[in-house]
Specification:
Alpha-Beta Plaits, Aminopeptidase, six-stranded mixed β-sheet, 2 domains, alpha+beta
């Protein structure tokens, strides 16, 4: 009972920090540091280049190989335009529900980690537990790769396992799709719409490229690179934003669209981008005979986030089944930092409190029962490590 009260108190404090993706997270990190220092836990910071944001690392237990990383992010998504029934940055308890931005995604997991510091410290662990808390996850997992790599730089010993605490209702998640967001800009020639046959409409060309992307996704659906654990079981391509033109009767000389690729494990996102780039070059050659100044520009909006594809025989599987109490393995279509930790050689799983269906929406909540189950998982983890 005492531990869940401590957890809720910490969660209340964490929710009060209005740290959106892209913003400075130094205040919430300072709060976390205060908790660690109160327990005598040494920590390391992994800041960005201008020192306005930082990830945090710490180790609880001996400096020996074989430990486990508990990882989560400190930022949340905006609340503007959403109709909340409570104040989003003030944790509000209604029955068994705790409402607030980030309560589910994923400050609930962070609160469970911090509420378990005393347990980990006093348990005489034979293998260490690490915390790895990042920034800017919500705008593309921008700090995940550096944070995962920093573990090997800061510590001489090597952890084996990593649990990424994204909300999964405490179910083990062995797979996540990777994501890459891109921007494509098309330059055409302006003119009167009656002259469309002698000019180049950037909107028309963009539509042609978008149609190619959709057909390419159809090919993926019929191809050999499939993973039935996912829904859909193939890599998907989606165009979410398009801007172009100034009037219905003016040929557009500029158009841009944003699109993303969500790849399953085993499908290299770079191959998708290369295929699109090759098609763009063909289109360019066809059109430049009529308009020499025509061009297509494709820009990655942020570095690709790799997928996670933990194998069924990974040693993290029996561990997570034992400490979570859940046997069935799951996959998710959303991206997370799990693939970045896996790429650094850690046997990685996603498992955390809360339902992903509550994330990013108004009246986000987590239940007390889910927090209790996460705290119980950490207690069983401690038993495994003593």
């Amino acid at each position: 009972m005492k531990k869940i009260k401590t957890c809720i108190k910490i969660l209340k404090d964490l929710v009060s920090f209005n740290v959106l993706g892209g913003q400075s997270n130094l205040e919430i990190i300072d709060y976390i540091v205060e908790i660690l220092m109160a327990h005598g836990i040494e920590y390391h910071l992994v800041p960005n280049t201008d020192m306005t944001k930082t990830s945090l690392l710490c180790r609880i237990g001996p400096a020996v190989d074989g430990g486990i990383i508990l990882s989560g992010h400190t930022d949340v998504v905006p609340v503007s335009g959403q109709e909340w029934n409570t104040k989003p940055f003030k944790l509000t308890k209604i029955d068994d529900y705790l409402y607030g931005r980030g309560s589910c995604d994923m400050k609930g997991f962070l609160a469970c980690c911090l509420a378990s510091v005393e347990l980990f410290k006093t348990a005489n662990l034979k293998k260490p537990v690490y915390f790895a808390f990042s920034y800017d996850e919500e705008i593309g997992c921008l700090a995940g790769t550096e944070l995962a790599a920093s573990i090997g730089k800061k510590y001489k010993e090597k952890p084996i396992f990593a649990i990424i605490g994204e909300p999964s209702m405490m179910n083990p998640v062995v797979g996540q799709k990777g994501i890459c967001v891109l921007k494509t800009t098309v330059n055409g020639s302006a003119g009167h719409s009656s002259m469309i046959r002698s000019e180049v409409s950037a909107v028309h060309v963009s539509a042609k490229l978008i149609s190619w992307l959709e057909k390419r996704m159809d090919n993926y659906a019929q191809g050999n690179i499939l993973d039935i654990r996912f829904d859909p079981p193939y890599s998907s391509v989606h165009v979410g934003m398009i801007h172009g033109g100034i009037a219905p009767n003016v040929i557009a000389d500029n158009c841009s669209f944003f699109w993303d690729v969500r790849v399953i494990p085993g499908h290299d996102v770079n191959s998708v981008i290369m295929e699109f780039d090759e098609y763009c070059r063909i289109v360019e050659q066809e059109i430049r005979t009529k308009f020499p100044g025509f061009c297509i520009i494709t820009i990655e909006d942020h570095p690709p986030v790799p997928p996670l594809g933990t194998k069924d025989n990974s040693p993290v599987i029996p561990l997570i089944r034992k400490i979570s109490g859940n046997y069935n393995l799951h996959t998710v279509a959303y991206a997370a930092e799990a693939g970045q930790f896996s790429n650094e050689g850690f046997e990685t799983i996603i498992c955390g409190p809360g339902d992903i269906a509550q994330a990013h929406r108004a009246n986000e909540f987590i239940t007390i029962d889910q927090l209790e189950k996460c705290l119980q998982m950490f207690e069983k983890l401690t038993e495994e490590f003593v």
